[in-house]
Structures are given as C-alpha cells and as structure tokens.
C-alpha cells in the first residue's frame, strides 16, 4: 500500500451524484453569500468523507468471520433471524453494529460462501440504535451458506436518517470474505446472526472495522468474550 493511498481515500461511485449536487449548491450559495458558500464547502467535504471507501486488510484463514461494517458493537443478544430468510424459529446469537454518520458506510461480506437468499423488506425508519429496529425498519437480509454447510445471516438496516439501502448480492452468487457488497446511506445498522454454537469474539462497546475486525472463529472453542470500557 503506497503512502499516497493512505492519504487519498477512494470515494465509492454511489457517492459521486451526491457530492456533485452538494458542490453545485455550494456554488449557488457562494453567489448569494460568502458565509453561506463556506457552509456549503463544509457540507460538500462531509459528503465526500461519508462516501469514502478505504481498502482493508482482510484475514484469509478459513473460518474467520469479519465485521460486515464499521461502527460500534452495540448489542450481542439472542434473536430469531428475519422471517423472510426462512431460517426457522430458533434464536441465534446476533451481533448488532451501529453506524453513525461519520463511520465508513461500505458493507462487506463477513465470510466466504454462497448466497442462498437475498430479501428486501420495507419498513419504518426508526432510530437504528433501538432493538426493535431489527424487526420494524426497512432492511435487506442475506442468507449465506458457508463451505462447511452451516449458514449465517446478515442484515442491512435503515436508520432514522438513512433512506436508501444498496445491495449487490444475488442468490447463487459466490463471495469471498471481506468483499464489498453494498452500503446504507446516512446512518444505519448491520446485524449478523452466528451459527448455533459459535461464540462472538467481540464485546459490547468495541469499535469494529468492516472487513478487518474478527467477530467469530468457526474453529474456536473459546467462550464468549467479556470486556469493560476503560
């Protein structure tokens, strides 16, 4: 990785129409008022920052499950996967990662496998930090079969500000760990449901990096980790 690439972070292509729109509005604001124009510059810079798409160093050992998003590990609980995925009524361990408007919003596949279901569910736009957002908010749910036959689910959830979920995954598609597969615009949450018996290797309050932070190890016998914020 070159020194220049660590300074100039790529912008996701989905962001360019928004950045251009902000820039045009900024020019109009400068025509009206220098003060308003500089506010437009700040907002345009923030828009470009929001759609940044940095490369990540993805662990390649089979069985390692990485975070599908940047953000804060907000909840680790037992919950039934979205019904539209047809994974049954048994609760699985769910890790919820909350993304604020300053996090990278690119989503990445948590582990290699084959997509078996990709289901969009319309819904509300409640605060994504709320537990009920998993059930009530707009979401895009993915069911993935791993090479060992076990399955996981991961879900993009729209938030209070987010109004657009982008997902490029289709049933039958094979993916590698850490592949980019979509984004959620302007604040959101991503849930991941672990296979039965697999324990999370992160704790509530921990910051996760999409594609890098290891959420679980399919080969590990380590019990669920505990931690405190200091």
From TrEMBL:
<comment type="subunit">
    <text>Heterodimer of a large membrane-associated beta subunit and a small pyruvoyl-containing alpha subunit.</text>
</comment>
<comment type="function">
    <text>Catalyzes the formation of phosphatidylethanolamine (PtdEtn) from phosphatidylserine (PtdSer).</text>
</comment>
<protein>
    <recommendedName>
        <fullName>Phosphatidylserine decarboxylase proenzyme</fullName>
        <ecNumber>4.1.1.65</ecNumber>
    </recommendedName>
</protein>
<dbReference type="GO" id="GO:0005886">
    <property type="term" value="C:plasma membrane"/>
</dbReference>
<dbReference type="GO" id="GO:0006646">
    <property type="term" value="P:phosphatidylethanolamine biosynthetic process"/>
</dbReference>
<feature type="site" description="Cleavage (non-hydrolytic); by autocatalysis">
    <location>
        <begin position="187"/>
        <end position="188"/>
    </location>
</feature>
<dbReference type="Pfam" id="PF02666">
    <property type="entry name" value="PS_Dcarbxylase"/>
</dbReference>
<feature type="modified residue" description="Pyruvic acid (Ser); by autocatalysis">
    <location>
        <position position="188"/>
    </location>
</feature>
<feature type="active site" description="Schiff-base intermediate with substrate; via pyruvic acid">
    <location>
        <position position="188"/>
    </location>
</feature>
<keyword id="KW-1208">Phospholipid metabolism</keyword>
<keyword id="KW-0594">Phospholipid biosynthesis</keyword>
<keyword id="KW-1003">Cell membrane</keyword>
<dbReference type="GO" id="GO:0004609">
    <property type="term" value="F:phosphatidylserine decarboxylase activity"/>
</dbReference>
<keyword id="KW-0443">Lipid metabolism</keyword>
<dbReference type="InterPro" id="IPR033175">
    <property type="entry name" value="PSD-A"/>
</dbReference>
<keyword id="KW-0444">Lipid biosynthesis</keyword>
<keyword id="KW-0812">Transmembrane</keyword>
<keyword id="KW-0456">Lyase</keyword>
<keyword id="KW-0865">Zymogen</keyword>
<keyword id="KW-1133">Transmembrane helix</keyword>
<dbReference type="InterPro" id="IPR003817">
    <property type="entry name" value="PS_Dcarbxylase"/>
</dbReference>
<keyword id="KW-0670">Pyruvate</keyword>
<feature type="transmembrane region" description="Helical">
    <location>
        <begin position="18"/>
        <end position="51"/>
    </location>
</feature>
<comment type="pathway">
    <text>Phospholipid metabolism; phosphatidylethanolamine biosynthesis; phosphatidylethanolamine from CDP-diacylglycerol: step 2/2.</text>
</comment>
<keyword id="KW-0210">Decarboxylase</keyword>
<keyword id="KW-0472">Membrane</keyword>
<comment type="similarity">
    <text>Belongs to the phosphatidylserine decarboxylase family. PSD-A subfamily.</text>
</comment>
């Amino acid at each position: 990785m070159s020194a220049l690439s660590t300074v100039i972070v790529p912008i996701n292509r989905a962001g360019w129409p928004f950045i251009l729109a902000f820039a045009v509005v900024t020019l109009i604001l400068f025509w009206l008022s220098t003060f308003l124009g500089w506010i437009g510059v700040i907002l345009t810079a923030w828009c470009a920052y929001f759609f940044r798409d940095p490369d990540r160093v993805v662990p390649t050992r089979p069985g390692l499950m990485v975070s599908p998003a940047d953000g804060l590990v907000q909840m680790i609980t037992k919950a039934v996967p979205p019904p539209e995925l047809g994974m049954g009524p048994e609760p699985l361990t769910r890790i919820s990662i909350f993304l604020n408007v300053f996090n990278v919003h690119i989503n990445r596949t948590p582990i290699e496998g084959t997509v078996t279901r990709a289901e969009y569910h319309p819904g509300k736009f409640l605060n994504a930090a709320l537990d009920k957002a998993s059930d009530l908010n707009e979401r895009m749910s993915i069911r993935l079969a791993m090479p060992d036959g076990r399955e996981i689910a991961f879900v993009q959830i729209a938030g209070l500000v987010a109004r657009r979920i982008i997902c490029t995954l289709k049933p039958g598609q094979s993916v590698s760990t850490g592949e980019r597969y979509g984004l959620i615009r302007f604040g959101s949450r991503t849930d991941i449901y672990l296979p039965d018996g697999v324990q999370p290797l992160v704790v509530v309050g921990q910051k996760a990096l999409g594609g890098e932070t290891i959420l679980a190890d399919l080969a590990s016998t380590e019990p669920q980790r505990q931690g405190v914020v200091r």
